[in-house]
Structures are given as structure tokens and as C-alpha cells.
Design goal:
Radius of gyration of chain B: 22 Å
Number of strands of chain B: 7
Strand content of chain B: 15-25%
Number of helices of chain B: 8
Oligomer: heterodimer
Structural class of chain B: alpha/beta
Order of helices and strands of chain A: EHEHEHEH
Number of strands of chain A: 4
Distance between the termini of chain B: 28 Å
CATH topology of the largest domain in chain B: Rossmann fold
Helix content of chain A: 25-40%
Number of helices of chain A: 4
Shape of chain B: elongated
CATH class of the largest domain in chain B: Alpha Beta
CATH class of chain A: Alpha Beta
Chain lengths: ~140, ~220
Amino acid sequence: MDEKTFEPKIVAFCCHYCAYASADLAGSMRLQYPPNVRIIRTPCTGRLEVEYYMKAFENGADGVLVAGCLEGGCHFIEGNLIAKKRVKGIQKIMEECGLEKERLQMINNSAAMAKNLVDAIHVMIYVVKQLGPSPVNKKIGIGH
Amino acid sequence: MIVAQRKSISDIHNIIKKHENILVLGCGTCVTVCLAGGEREVSIISSALRIASKKSGDKVKISELTIERQCDNVFIETAAEEIKKNDAVVSLGCGAGVQAIAERYPNKPVYAGLDTAFLGILESRGVWTEKCAQCGECLLSDFGGICPVTRCAKHMLNGPCGGSREERCEIKADQPCAWQLIYKRLKEIGEVDKIKKIHVPKDWGKSLNGGSRIIIREDHRI
């Protein structure tokens, strides 16, 4: 697949209490989003250890989207705030190993914000398309 | 405990890229507690190194292993097989761990993946502070348990220097004046008289002067 037809592979870690429910709602509302995104449900974004993000990139994800609850609305009180700090730390590691930090983004989304989630997925795909395939996985994308 | 920090991934990658098979070796003791070289950090650093290698087109294969302690022969032996299988080792142990591995495997390049920083404690989540300079002659009993050698920016044994402002150090304004802390502590424990004691110049010969130090306990030798 050449870079013009590049369809990025995005891993979206979605919190069970908000973003995952909003993805469900997006389906009920017939809001479409591109198939580039692979949603992985997580009990809380604070549960996501650094290794999870690194493994996603190591195994060829072109981008990783983390969707947690609105700040102040975490089911586990501060899991999304922990994730926010962790994401910043991982972006630093990514830059050190030659990955653009924009490949990892975090959003805050309530269970009712289906449109917001869909928009964020579109933005993420646009950003990653601009960046091109992950240097880890240049020859492999969707369809390979 | 010994507190260390990870070297940058690009620095480690530059060191290892000439090899084909690398073992990233973690240590389960001090550096695990300070979140620099334990099992999780081994996984994170290995992933980052694989990404960096793939990006630059190197064919480095990275294995991971964490042993209980890198500064102890009994535990180093448990890594023997993995070390032999690989061309070089990136040790995520402290300086002692790196050297212990290097000494046991004279023909194997051993690289440091961490910068060993100091002997300290976990102050709060994510904050470590230096508490001991390992000067070789502990004077903590005279100073209410607060070490001026480590915590006073001027290492003064007969303080305070007079430059502190609002209980803060004049050299490092973000840190408390060690002598202020010593005074308060001695007062609290009813030993404030100790502050009047004049300390003669310390014997720095017991510190790092004259090469590395050694302790031999004949009663424990076989």
C-alpha cells in the first residue's frame, strides 16, 4: 500500500463507563465512523499501563486514541487524570524513539457524547494520515 | 535505596545498534522501587528500543529478563543462560549491578541503561530525595538524624552559614535549609545543646578519595 492510499490503523482504548458507551450510542444514533479504528474496552483509562501503549505502537498501530471520562467525572475518581499524566510521559518516550507524539492523543468524553467521539476519531485519522504510516510498520496497514 | 533514572532511548539505541541480539536485564530491587529498572521498565524500554530499531532499519533482536538482584552472584546465575544467548546486555541495574554483570561475563559487552543518581528515599508518589552521600563516617547522631553533608548545599558541619532566607537554602531556594531542619529537630528531641558542638574537619579519606572502598568482615569470610 503506498502512502497515498494509506489507511491508518488506530487503536482506541475506551473507558467502559464513558467512551465505550458513547461508541455504543454512536451506533444507535447511526453515526458512522471509519473502520480504521479498533476499539478496546478498558475498565478505566487509569488502568492502562505504559506498556499497553508501547505494545500497541510496537505491534504496528499508526495511532492510539485514549478516551476517558470528563475530568471530574471518572467512575474511579481520578483514573482519567492519572491517564492524562501518563500519556504525557509516553509522548516523551515516543519522541525519544522517533515516533511523532501526535500519534497518541487523549480525549475526555461522556457516555452521552457520541458525536464528540466520532469527531475525535475523524480528527485522529486525519492527523495520522498527515503523519503517514508508523515508521515501525510502513508496509503494513489495513489490507495488508 | 539507590535511586536511578532511565537514559534516553536514543542514547541507549545508539549504543546497542551495532549488535544483533540484545538482552535488556532488569533488577528487582532498588531500581524497581524507584521505577527505573524493574520488570515493567524493562518491558517499556525494550518496546521503545524495538520501535527505534525498526525505524532506523537495524536488525536488533531484543530479549527481556528481570532478576531479583543484579549485585548478587546467586541471582546473576539465574540470568546466565539468557546472557550467553545474547551478544550484549543492557543492564537496568544501578552502577553496582552493571559492574557485577560485567565482571562475571568478561567477554560480553554490558551497557548501562540507567544513570544512577543517589541514595535516597521515596518522598511522595513520583518524588525521590537524596538523603545519604555515603561519606563513610556517619555523623547523623550529632545532627538529630538530618545529614548536613548531604542536605546542606555547602556540606557545612558547623552551620548554619547565615545565608538562608525564610528557612530556605540560599543556593537552592526550592529546598529547606538543612541547618534550620537540624535546629528544629534537635529542639524537638531536647538535644539543642548539640548544635553548639564544634566539629573538627571530617576525615574525607573514608569517602571516595583514593579509589573505591572495600569492607572486609573476617568474621563472615569463609
